Protein MbtH
Amino acid sequence: MHDEQRDERSYRVVVNDEEQYSIWPGDRELPGGWREEGTRGDRETCLAHIDRVWTDMRPRSLREELARPRQGG
């Protein structure tokens, strides 16, 4: 990326009720259904944090469903 195109914005890591992660510009109001996770910084810092902490990409509801014991047979 050229210096004149460098993204100088501040971002924050956000998470939804399904424990899915994303980044959002630090100066914009969060969209409905998302909350701040606590990490802020440049784009690369936020994406690197998500890579470290979001190790299971399945939505929370699916993980919980798969963890329930099966009945019957």
Observations:
- The chain has a mean pLDDT of 91.
- The two ends are 56 Å apart (CA to CA).
- The beta strands are 11-16, 21-25, 34-41.
- The chain has one domain: 3-67.
